[in-house]
User: Fold these one by one.
Assistant:
Number 1:
Amino acid sequence: MKLKCLIGSLSCDGVLVEKGDVFELPDDVATRLVKDGDVEIVEEPIKKIFNEQIEELHTKKKKKY
Amino acid sequence: MVNAIANLAKYFDKEMIKPLQQRFVGRKLVPKNNELSGKGLGMESVDVWTLLRMADATISLGLPTGFGDTADVTSETLNLPVLAEPFVLPRRMYESYKMAGIGIEAALAIEAAYRVQLAEEALILDGWKPDGATYTIKGLYQSAGNAEATADDFGTYGKATEKVTLAKALLEADSVYGPYNLVLNQVQHNQLLASESANGNPEWDRVMTILNDGGSGPAQIFSSPIQAVDTGMMLAVPDKTYFDLVIPQDYKNQLNEDPKLGTLSPLYGMVYESLAPRIKQVNSICKLTAI
């Protein structure tokens, strides 16, 4: 999972990142760090496009009815 | 009719048994700022000025040309909350206890003071979030500028040593040097106390050596229920360079009567204080998670 560091310096499993850095960690570790509030998930571009398309479809449906 | 001997044989112990109380570590971790403290409840906030680092110095054979760095200062306002526990004692109840020789008002004041101290401990160690979600005042843990998140279960020998060493590296990278204090939940504190190698060497001693930077310094390992289980924090020993405690009003107990009722009035009491932790260097604190 792609993450963005929110805290000054973060060290985890040998990875050392600073605030604003984007990095990757296995999903289970990432979920834990998100819960701690030290990182946020960075949406992957393909996922973002997919979400946008779904949103667009919903909007069109609403307009129709 | 009640048998008189049943009442006559009763003996009243004048000592009031108090609720159990936890230990406090907050004021051991953060030093008091004597210059800003003691101003009274009128002091509602304090402005904090922070000088930012200058550019790197240059090395050259000749004198540098051009102008240098200017002072880059940021300012922030630290609000100072009031921590209070009010209580009321009906007059007749007070007189009854007084007649029996029991100082109920003193017992109530001591219990109220404990409740205030409990709130203070949470404020210093964690912070204050009036809506339960957003911190209005961040304490030590919430202010931490470093986080060590490698999964190191303190229940396994060697893991506490590894965790503390990793955290020390993070703190040193920010020019924060030992000795350090370590704050744990009781669960991890007890795991560390019980942890020993196959040869019977206690891990506690190894961790203390690391915290003391190899020497025999003032580092301590504290436990507090305020510190969430599976988490901890490693921070510089009390030093005003990194953080301090602004206490405009230290603990005070006030006991009053309503003047309209005079000697028939209930007793109104309140234990209160005003203080806030000021974290000057967030990088002097390292959060430990997954321990």
Number 2:
Amino acid sequence: MFEEKPANPAAGETQEEPLAAQSAAEPVTTEEESSRPPSEPAPSVNDREEAAPSAARAVAVALAGWLLPGLGHALLKMWGRALAIFLIVGFLVYLGAGMRGNVFVPGGEDAFARLGYVADAGAGSFYFAARALEVSGSDVSHADGDYGTRFLATAGVLNLLAALHAYEAARGRKA
Amino acid sequence: MVPLHFSHLQSLLLFALIISLAFGTLGRRKPIERVKYAAWSFVMFVLVGIALGWLMYPFSR
């Protein structure tokens, strides 16, 4: 894996508060002004508004990441993470389907089936890939199938975690 | 699709490896920190998994 830059250059690792929380009309702090060289112009209000992370954009990034694993990070130009998430979630789905794990469908009879569906659906479009791959149906009468069910659920939950990470990165909270 | 068959230990190792890679990728930024975190997660997954297996062993029969 290679080192990546934060999606938002204005958002460093140590930044706790999103830039959106700062008022655009607020004057630049005196500390910033004192540390800026005289030759460098002060950032305009428009510049700061452009740098402020948008909540709607962050939600769109998270949704994209959920629909296609890794897409959220790809939109943020975090290529290494995007590729890793795509491959890891895809591999988990492949293994789960190959081990004939249970792919839960909506409208389960009990809480376990409903929760299982929520976890499986977390893989986004890969949920349908799992259903397409598992042509002979699930077989949880053996340990393989049981493990496969966990692999599929883990793929979904992991993708949800990645989508949340992409959301946070888009908000400039962490990268 | 060709059915895949793994033993319990193989499944544990495979699961630990994949999830550790994901944790390392998402949890850290610098490559060396990613490798360290992934290795630490992998070892912990395997050790805790085997420990839990032994803890459950007396109740398995």
Number 3:
Amino acid sequence: MIKVDNLTKYYGPTLAVDSVSFEVQKGEVVGFLGPNAAGKTTTMRVITCYLKPTAGTVDVAGYDIHENPLEVRRRIGYLPENNPLYPEMNVVDYLSYIAELRQIPGAHRMKRIKEIIGITALGDVLHKDIGELSKGYKQRVGLAQAMVHDPEILIFDEPTSGLDPNQIIEIRQLIKEIGREKTIILSTHILPEVSATCSRVLIINDSRLIASGTTDELIKRAQGTEVLQVCVKGPEEEVFKALRAVEFVGEFRKIGGEPADEGTWLSLEIQSQGGDIREKIFKLVVEKNWSLRELKLEKMSLEQVFAKLTTA
Amino acid sequence: MKNVITIARKEFKAYFDSPIAYIFITAFLLLVNFLYLWAFFVVGQADIGSFFGVMPFIFMFLVPSITMRLWAEERKMGTLEVLLTLPIQGKEVVLGKFLASFLFLLVMLALTFNVPLLVGALGDPDWGMVICGYLGCLLLGASYLAIGLFASALSENQIVAFILAIAISAAMLIVGEWFFLMLVPDIFVPVFNYLGLGTHFESLGRGVVDTRDIIYYLSVIGVFIYLNINTVENRTWV
């Protein structure tokens, strides 16, 4: 559906996007993840034909942004960062204006606006001026404007920025529902948002695409090995010696020791080279008659993946 | 073409959403009426020419204040990012904004019609001059509008847009005025005289519709609209 090919964009001497290439298939909900100033917004601005790239091209639904920008724009609904709106217009007038410029034929227009007002729950504020609305409602107006012409592709730049936690949940829910039928690209630097709404993630840092895949794939890739948190009570030297002998146990280290009645609770972090070795550890503990109070498979969080990839 | 009208309609309405439009119209009408009428009964002549004579100078300050928000505000608020990602062309937006500001000017000028009516009630003015005078105002005004609109696209800041518009308008006006022509070597005088915004206005003000004057104004409008479209479509600013 969307094919970005070696996209490069300079703002004067500053490199904002460096040879970024990726594809988005129809129906996918893809998350652009990256720190501020990574190049996410610039990439979106090129895809929506707001900016011209310095080099490279983008193909949207078969249309090239250089040759057919109008066709590209017709198929995209865009919610820019900071959700720019006209404060002096009222909600219905604004949506009507956008609908008209979107070439929605007159007869159909009012009907479509009513539909979109229903979807974005704007019914209560229809006749208010946009300037009077709360941030949450403004965001919904922005979404309504992006969706009014029922585009196949939606591009949302930080759609939940500045919203309170309740509003964030509502917008995410909305995006999830829309995502069932549409192709969506959304950008964010809030990691849980990505896991909550996206089927695939593109991590952009410092103008380059540094990782791409599903959340699980990325975690696996970044983590490399499985890590166990184990807390066992037994003589330290013996424990260490026995662990080394276990199959698939890789590096391990002691991260804490807590004196107890008959010995010390050893908190250990064990890296596995062969998947889930919890059962092996358990059997070892039973065999040696130690005590066990924690046996946990640590999954690297997306935050850690992100930090790892973007601070290298 | 449809999009031009849609945009023009929205922009025209936007003028009247803010109190500024009403303040400007009132100020303009007061100024124009005062300037003409304070000597009117003393002079005692149904001379409509002096009514139009002040327009180039009034417009030079008034028109930039009408156009200054048209692009600068959109740039500042970021709404261009929505407008220019719609399936419409940059030139449609330029023309739409121009049309809206022209209609606003038309309204303002129409409201000054009380003056010729007054003169007509008291005396016998040259109605041909009245018509030509208003035509000149429209053409001259539209030229200032094109200049002001272009200037507005050059900055995020409305005040800067305002000042730039005045600067360009002033330059184009002064170029044809006698105090500038005095300083120019003789061979260039007709050239600069032709380029001056005021020159053609005066000739129209005499009641003669000369195609040279009309072509001049349409060219000025054309040039600045073209520059405007260029500034928007080939922008380096976001």
Number 4:
Amino acid sequence: MTGEPVLEISDLSVVYRTPTGDVRAVDRVNLTLHRGEVIGLCGESGSGKSTLVYGANRLLRPPALITGGSVRYSGRRLTEEAGSAELLRLRAHELRRLRWREISIVFQSAMNALNPVLNVADQLTDAMYAHLQLSRAEAKEKAATLLDLVGIPRSRLRAYPHELSGGMRQRVMIAMALATDPEVVIMDEPTTALDVVVQRDILTQIVELKEQLGFAVLFITHDLSLLLELADRIAVMYAGQLMESGTAEEILREPAHPYTKGLLNSFPSLRGPRRELAGIPGSPPDLRNLPPGCPFVPRCSYATDACKEIDMSLKPVTSSADPSHVTACPFVQPGVLA
Amino acid sequence: MTLTSVAAAQGELAVEAVSMSKDFRLGRNNTLHAVRDVSFNLYRGAVVALVGESGSGKSTAARLLAGQERLTSGTIKLDGTPISISTRRSFRQYKSQVQYVFQDPFSSLNPVHTVRYTLERPIRLHQPGADVGAAADALMEQVRLTPARQFLAKYPHELSGGQRQRVAFARALAAKPSVLLADEPVSMLDVSIRLEMLALLNDLRTRLRLALLYITHDIASARYFADEILVMYAGQIVERGPAEEITQQPKHPYTQLLVSSAPDPDHLGSTLRTGGTGAGAQRVQRVKAAEGFATQGCPFSPRCPLADERCREENPALLPLSDTRAAACWHVDEAGEGIRANS
């Protein structure tokens, strides 16, 4: 079901310059998104997952600084003319054309991301006027179709954000991201503030829309349990680095990194027998002065002295038939915690 | 048949809510019945979970118990005595027994005060004559923020979300309460930290014999943490019973919807991608989120796949199913059958 790569992030590093030293928020991360694929990017607050995707789209302002790497985008519309584009080298006006038209973002907390003084129709058509040559009537019609798509009655076109519920606002955000038929949709915690019934509703809708329109999704969340159902592949991030990446099935059945194992053992399950849950004791490290070797050592129950010397490159999991199931931990046997 | 709470096995009765109701006047001829005829008991050392979606009235119910809203009708009894919060003094007396923990630790702590100030104020108010410094240290030990001295000197912005929520717990415990009302205490925290916080709460209720009301929309965490679950919808309790039974054999169609909406890693990929919902309750799957509650009949009837004429006319009462379970549904037998057939 997956096609050729659309977005290739290689060796991307982002630091935040602070008076007390550089915060290495993203450290040499590689991530490839294929056409029509859902990749889940998972990690705790402060693990650098949002910084990674905002950095890749050049949406960060100083003190954030991209210190290395490349981000290659090859959308269908581009390949016909120019091959692919290196996002980190584009000029401002080229970047502006590409953003939203090719790569759009559903921002965190839809509660605040909508403009409170514009009604739904104005928010939806704004991006269309900027990127597509549409008449007022066409744009209005398209805005109405978009609302149909996300399951909001057309009569709400004239509504202002405060007149909508949290779930509806989130849907408007998703509709906005789809307004220009992008190839890649980045979703940054789109369901965090919503309750479970609405959350499931929206996730189901995202999957349906993806099937229908064929865009690729990069889905950022701290809740691994959501991704297991939603994503084709999952990348687990900790302290600015990738810890493990593999298909949802592999991550659930054969997690290879102790951090992934810990995450899997953190959420209560509704079905099946009651399991003993442990969570992950401790808290994330200070990114200003990371110890050498694996950043997870202080919280890891398997840690040995050798862990302080390993390089954090991702290596294929030896017991796995799939070479794309990779882990940064060379020591621990794959498998769920007993 | 009279209903007994499974939580009663844990300890003596602390708080009774008897037919609590709360109406909000929204305008002329427009009244929101936020809480309708809700009764339940909290017992020392037991956890009762109040589960429901946004707008179901679960927070209002807790705010009524906390004395932050006035009851429209009904009674709240503390240790068997009906309470009346008419004066500041009686409010303070009540507050030292019943404390409330807010959802969002990022906004519930005053950013311009240190942790020490945040904790010492309630200690002075509720423990007159106590050694304030020692009491603050002891509180920090209880919520495992150690070394206490170091954390007491910090401001909220210097703490992580989990640490802030621990401070919020410590502040509630400063009043030496017997009842703790925790309103979504972990929903703003990372998944990896939630478990630790629930373990801490669990430890506190056992050690301090607290009666705990745990409010959440995450029914899976209620399964692990609570003794009894009360499911609320549109201001009413629609189903109640032991946590394990409610989550494994939900009887009310709304509880079934909640259970089937929870992320289900054990049904990997299957459900979302094929457009269905989790195991069981297939019939509820296409039901959209609430557009509004019915004003007549059963409030769930507009979303319920089993709804018929009777449901739209008459609101079912909460009737016992066994000596520990009850549900408010005209079709509770069919609904129960549905789950078994589908799973």
